[in-house]
């Protein structure tokens, strides 16, 4: 079971889930993508999906279920499309999707974030992300956790002497045969709601669930409820064999 974090968090966003998944009998792997958490920025051309595939190879994992939040959902889809033999199931929480074109709301957000970072106002850029991506269920503790993870990512990425451009693998979603749970949040921006809702039309074994209380990061907003949602899906699609965890 590989847990892929969003672009405003790192592996720590899965703190509420990984132990329960391991206790249920899954070997849990939760990496930091490059430039997040404990992983440095890239010093050579790379792809996040390729990194995950290489990690699985290094760990001796021949097949794995993937859970991806937001940007992590895009990475999961890219891996499942480019290496379908590796992926047994997909649980996607408010996922980005390969090839998506941002709508007006996302473009406006990106422009505001870029302007704040260019002006050196890191505090405001962090707060912009906290307010945009967390829904009404998120309390002060969760907001502080996202604030910490987002600030760290900005600091690591802005300190890099050189930004290495990521390459993207071919992502023909029609190649994905694994069962998929696509989750959206009713308080999320329209882009992500529409992308999740549209996946059953693009993947033969996908179903969509919208959470009426959720923003963009439901696994942090109501962690226990999302943990059960993931376990219910996994027990049916990929019953566990043994328990383990890798960070």
From TrEMBL:
<dbReference type="InterPro" id="IPR050228">
    <property type="entry name" value="Carboxylesterase_BioH"/>
</dbReference>
<dbReference type="InterPro" id="IPR029058">
    <property type="entry name" value="AB_hydrolase_fold"/>
</dbReference>
<dbReference type="InterPro" id="IPR000639">
    <property type="entry name" value="Epox_hydrolase-like"/>
</dbReference>
<dbReference type="InterPro" id="IPR000073">
    <property type="entry name" value="AB_hydrolase_1"/>
</dbReference>
<dbReference type="Pfam" id="PF12697">
    <property type="entry name" value="Abhydrolase_6"/>
</dbReference>
<feature type="domain" description="AB hydrolase-1">
    <location>
        <begin position="1"/>
        <end position="228"/>
    </location>
</feature>
<protein>
    <submittedName>
        <fullName>Pimeloyl-ACP methyl ester carboxylesterase</fullName>
    </submittedName>
</protein>
């Amino acid at each position: 079971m590989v847990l892929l974090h969003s672009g405003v968090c790192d592996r720590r966003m899965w703190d509420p889930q990984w132990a329960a998944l391991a206790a249920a009998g899954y070997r849990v792997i939760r990496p930091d993508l490059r430039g997040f958490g404990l992983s440095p920025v890239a010093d050579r051309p790379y792809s996040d999906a390729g990194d995950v595939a290489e990690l699985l190879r290094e760990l001796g994992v021949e097949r794995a279920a993937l859970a991806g939040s937001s940007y992590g959902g895009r990475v999961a889809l890219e891996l499942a499309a480019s290496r379908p033999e590796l992926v047994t199931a997909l649980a996607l929480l408010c996922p980005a999707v390969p090839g998506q074109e941002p709508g007006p709301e996302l473009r406006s957000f990106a422009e505001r974030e870029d302007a704040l970072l260019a002006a050196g106002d890191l505090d405001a850029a962090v707060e912009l992300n906290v307010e945009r991506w967390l829904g009404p269920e998120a309390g002060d503790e969760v907001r502080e956790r996202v604030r910490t993870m987002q600030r760290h990512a900005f600091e690591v990425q802005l300190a890099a002497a050189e930004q290495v451009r990521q390459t993207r693998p071919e992502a023909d979603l029609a190649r994905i045969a694994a069962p998929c749970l696509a989750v959206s949040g009713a308080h999320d921006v329209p882009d992500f709601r529409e992308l999740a809702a549209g996946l059953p039309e693009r993947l033969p074994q996908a179903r969509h669930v919208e959470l009426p209380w959720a923003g963009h990061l439901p696994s942090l907003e109501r962690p226990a409820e999302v943990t059960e949602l993931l376990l219910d899906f996994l027990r049916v699609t990929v019953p566990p064999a043994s328990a383990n965890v890798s960070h």
